[in-house]
Amino acid sequence: MSSLNLWSILSESKRIINAHSRHFLALSVIFLLPLSFSLIVSPTIFHLITTSSNSPTIHILLRLAHNQPQTQTQTQTTFNLPSPFPLLLLSLFLLLVFSLSALATITHSVFHGFFGRPVKLLSTVTSLSSSFLPLLLTSILSHLILLSLSLPIPLLLDPNLSFSPITLTASAILLLALIFLLFYLRISWTLASVITIIENTYGIQPLRRSASLMSGMRSTGASCFLFFASLEGIMLWSGSLLAAVASDSGSWKDWAFVLQIVLTSAVLTILMLYNAAANTVLYMYCKAVHGELAAEIAEDFAWQYVSLPFDEDKVPYVVSVVSV
C-alpha cells in the first residue's frame, strides 16, 4: 500500500485528463473558468467599491445631497441605485451552481475515464439532472454539521473574555479538540461528493460511506486535501493582494493587471480540475484497498467474455469475443 500516495493519485489524474484533454478543457471553460475568474476578480471589485465610497469626492457629494431641500431629496430617492444585497445573493447562487456542476461533471467523467470508457460532453452535462440535487443536499448537510461544531470556536477566541488559568487551559484544550475533530471529519468526508454522484445516494449515507472507505487512507486523503487547499489558498491570497495593490495605485486598468488576473484564474482553474479528479481517483483507490474494485472491474468487462462449459473437474477456458 506504500504506492498509494499523493504522487500516484496525481499521476493517475493526469493520465485520465490527458487521455480526454478536449473533454476536460470544455468542462473547465464552461464551469470552472467562470468560477475561478469570479473568485479572483471579486476582491478587486470590492476594493474599488470601498475605495470609491471612502474618497473625498463621494463624501462631498453626500454632504451636498444631505443639505438639499426635503422636496428635492424625496424626488432624488426615486433614482437611487438598487441595493447590492440581491446582486450579492444572485452572485453567490451562481457560484454555488457553477461549483457543484463542475464537481458533478468532472467526477462523472473521471470515473468513466478510469475504466477506459468513452466520455462525451453532452451525456456528461445531461447527467447533472440526476446528480445536482443530491449533491446539493449532501453538501448542505455536511456544511451544516461542520458549521454547528465550529460555533464555539469564536467564543473561545474572544479576547474580551477574561479566564482564569485553569479555564484558559481547558479552553485551549477544547479549542484544539474542536479543530482536530473538524479536520478529522473533513478528511473522513472527502469522498462524500464522489459517492453521491457515482453511487446515487444523498444525505447522511454518503458521509458514512466516505468515512468507511477512508479507513486506512486518511493520511493520503489529508495530504491530498492539504496540497490543493494550500495551493488554491495561495492563488486566492495573491488575487486579494493584487486587488489591494491595484486599487491603491489605480493600475487596475493596466494591461499587465488584466494579464495577471487571467493567469491567476487559469492556474486556479487547473487546480480545481485536478482537485476534483484526484478525489475521484482516491475513491477508486479506496475501493481497491477494501477489495471492491476488482469485482466492479470484472462485472464491468464481463460482457466481453464467454465461458465455455467443460467437465467440472477441468478448468474452464475463457474466450474473448472481439467484434470486427
From TrEMBL:
Superkingdom of the source species: Eukaryota
PANTHER family: F26K24.10 PROTEIN-RELATED, OS08G0107100 PROTEIN-RELATED
Name of the molecule in the record: Transmembrane protein
Keywords: Membrane, Transmembrane, Transmembrane helix
Transmembrane segments annotated in the record for this chain: 24-46, 87-111, 132-157, 163-185, 224-245, 257-277
Natural source organism: Vicia faba
